[in-house]
Amino acid sequence: MNFPFFIARRYFSSKKKKSFISLISNMSMLGVGVGTMALVIVMSVFNGMEELNRQLFRSFDPDLKITPTSGKRFVIEPAKLKKISQLEGVKFVTQVIEDNALASYGGRRVLVKLKGVDETFSQRKQLDTAMIEGKLLLNDGDELKAVVGATVQQILGINTNDIFTPLELAYPRSDTRTLNLNSPDAFNQQIIRVGGVYMLELRFDDYVIVPLSFASSLLGYGDKRSALEIQLTPHSNPDRIKAVVASQLGEGFQVQTRDEQNADLLRAIRLEKLFVTITLGLIILVAAVNIFFSLSMLVIEKKDDIRMLFAMGATASLVKKIFLFEGALVAFTGAIVGLVMGVIICWLQQTYGFVSMGMISSLVDAYPVKMQWQDFVITAFTVILVTMIVSYVPAKRASLSPIR
């Protein structure tokens, strides 16, 4: 056995330590344990929130999205569209027209995001599990239908069973120089019946999804499109296919993965997780200051033992290692207990969901939790770093020659 570690372990488990030193040592272990447990739990909750948002993205956003680098509209050549559709790993390519429009229903009005899609959108089956009323059906025989978000339904009071009240959509005409809001001639207007309602999350629930031909006619896009949405086959590599698609389209287009489409939100979650991790790391540092005091007093208590070690030929480096190991034992004991408790609490939350979100309208009943091995590495590194910082000075003092 390593000699410095052997001596440190004897000091750690010794029953002859003065009660006050033992109390401070136990407080150190408790503080490090609680801080470690809190760090594991908080990071796991942020992982769960990030994963929950990714699940929402998968229900609405495509795997890859093609948009123009400048402007809102572009014309895609049929040959290029066909070539992209035939790429290995590509399942569907959906043509999209998207813009803001004014929606009216039963005397109520609201500004909505109008999204026109072709027939492949329904085949993607992304919104199937999010439908709360009706069906995801945009073409019912010869009749065109719309699917609206829950926010639009609530504001306008839409009743999917009311066959007599259609949804009216209006968009400013492009051939008018001045816009007169009171003039009906200032807007292109069309009506459509609502066939279904979906509910995901506020940022997605203000959409009105209509057939591509309806949106093209209302918005005056003609053959132009605002985006192409690509759904990939399972287990495909989005980054690889993104590079291939970008090379085929050339300049003037940008291709984004699902994470890149929602980069701002994911970045905000990661930054918040980083700052909370740093804050809890500082709390662990404050708790570990007790290690400094307990080691300092232990050095004084073991002054005779240190002289004896030097008399037997021990080097200053060996004595310093003894007290570094002593600090590490105190910190790691607390850290291991904290890690175990953190894992148990996270597992219980994952399995039974004891801590609820506390909101009736929340997407999930309990706080989402997801444990990742990277978090345990970060936690262990934090504890090691803090331990080395607070243990170095007492260990260095023990190794100085005047103590001999």
- Please, what is the average pLDDT? 84
What is the helix tally?
Answer: 12
The outline comes out as: elongated
The poorly predicted ranges are: none
Strand arrangement in the largest pleated sheet: 2-3-9-6-8-7
What is the rounded distance between the termini? 25 Å
Radius of gyration: 32 Å
Beta-strand proportion: 15-25%
Query: What's the total number of strands?
Result: 11
Brief sketch in words of this structure:
The chain is an alpha+beta fold. The chain has helices at residues 3-13, 19-60, 78-85, 120-124, 150-156, 212-219, 238-249, 258-261, 263-301, 303-311, 316-352, 373-398, and strands at 64-68, 90-105, 108-117, 131-134, 139-140, 143-149, 167-172, 187-198, 207-211, 227-232, 253-257. It has a 6-stranded mixed β-barrel.
SSE layout:
Layout lengths: L2 H11 L5 H42 L3 E5 L9 H8 L4 E16 L2 E10 L2 H5 L6 E4 L4 E2 L2 E7 H7 L10 E6 L14 E12 L8 E5 H8 L7 E6 L5 H12 L3 E5 H4 L1 H39 L1 H9 L4 H37 L20 H26 L6
Parallel strand pairs: 3-9, 6-8
Antiparallel strand pairs: 1-10, 1-11, 2-3, 2-7, 2-10, 4-8, 5-6, 6-9, 7-8
Protein architecture, described:
51% of the residues lie in helices and 19% in strands. The protein has helices at 3-13, 19-60, 78-85, 120-124, 150-156, 212-219, 238-249, 258-261, 263-301, 303-311, 316-352, 373-398; strands at residues 64-68, 90-105, 108-117, 131-134, 139-140, 143-149, 167-172, 187-198, 207-211, 227-232, 253-257. The chain has a six-stranded mixed barrel. It is elongated and about 100 Å long. It starts with a helix and ends in a 6-residue tail after the last helix.
